[in-house]
Amino acid sequence: MTEVPRVRVNQVGYLPDGPKAATLVTDATAPVPWRLLRDGVAVAQGESQPRGHDPSAGLDVHVVRFDEVREVGSFVLEADGATSDPFAVAENLYDGLRVDSLVVFYGQRSGVTIDEALLGPGYGRAAGHVDVAPNRGDGAVPCLPAGHATTADGVDLYDGWTAGYVLDVTGGWYDAGDQGKYVVNGGIAVAQLLGLYERALRTGTTDPLGDGSLRVPERGNGVPDVLDEARWELEWMLRMRVPAGEPYAGLVHHKVSDERWVPLPTLPADDPQPRYLHRPSTAATLNLAAVAAHGARLFAPHDAAFAEQLLGAARDAYDAAHDHPVLLAPDTNVLADAGSGPYDDADLDDDRLWAAAELFLTTGEDRYADDLRANPCTPVFRPEGFDWNHVAAWAYLQLATVPSALPERDTVRAAVVEAADALRDQQATQPFGHPYVPTTGRYDWGSNGLVLNNLALLAAAHEITGDPAYRDAVLGGVDYLFGRNALGVSYVTGYGTRDVRNQHSRWYAHQLDPSLPHPPRGTVSGGPNSDCPDPVSAALAGSPAQCCFVDDIGAYGVNEMTINWNSALAWVASYLARG
What we know:
By secondary structure, the chain is an alpha+beta fold.
């Protein structure tokens, strides 16, 4: 990659009626002149705004604003002897991203051949985990044998749990760059796909998300394609339930995964590892309750039988979680070779809030409203944003925007707007324009996903109030992801001059095997992580937060791809794309 320009812009571009800002890296203490050029001719000019030292970037910076520019075209920005990467001003900047970010999910499907005619030339691959050698397959997966999750000092993480049954858990999405499938990460991901379609229903913008809008095998079946994609995961989640008559009947297994990690690269069809069901968890069960209830109301016009099945599953899961309120998934990272991510979560009040919210929104029943009122979850909103293990904010976004007869709905809506105002206040302190200011000053694992989820909160405030200032805040935050950041990179494959292309994946592994592709267009990287927990990014430990990133396939702690980060990207792209 060539030297990054000191003028950092959104390398994709800016909407004509939206805010337009860039960040200039300079040690100048006074304002400097800038010019916006189109075909070498200046169309706007002014002076920069010095912002001093940004500790998150480790840089001295100015901000350049050119909001008044409305004409469309291709531009560069000059300031302080430096020239930006080229960028566009156009209406349709995010239309393609809405599609591409959703089609990424098709490439994550397990149990089906991936057609390169849909995902793109070079992206076809054989079906993974379908009981064809060398796969052990997902058609009849046993429970993890007792003692298989024992630490070096003899602690059994599952307290001797095992069971004698097997389950068909084919289908679903591979969670990230590995072969595991996890209910709690699938939950927030499928929820955001359902949520972006539900928002389109409210705003009358469903046509771009209708049947035939995505490159998926189900196109042409009369059902909106984004619902078809969500169904692939929902049906797998239903298969993860403990059978009747067994201990923990009605609960949901936390994950299905390999016994050991497979090396990079390994295509899913070439995975030789035994597969096991891990102990069920209350969190996974509440995730199923939430998304099944959500899916029930969206599938009702298209497949009444499936909608009824989902609602029944949601009720049953909610009741099972009530009967087993604190069955927790352990931190399996303490094992020498776990073969899967832990997704452990010791605080379940937010999961209960989310499940009750979706069941109330679908049924309107007092039982679920009463549980919402009694839930002690706090705080609902965090400066760091929401994610798979902090879903209370998502529950509030749903309660605030999905029409219902909840008496406290106005209070919830006010809380969302108040949280969005706090985010805008934080955003104003950031010379790179992003609404992400962790209280510790350190960036978390998946910081880009957290940024995107904060943008979803701002977008919800826009929907609630109609105030365009919140939409402008979303646009300003998106700039960070597409190049207006300390490293001058776009974190989305295929978008921008300096896009990341080596996200951690076992099958999108071009960096290791040139016969394999990079991650498909529209894949977002996890982004800077101050912990730098992998052997590649470890060399960056102690760097300013925004600089704890490297575009390397081995840097799983900063550069992995996951379904929940791409669902956040898809939600925001759908909000910004034209109706």
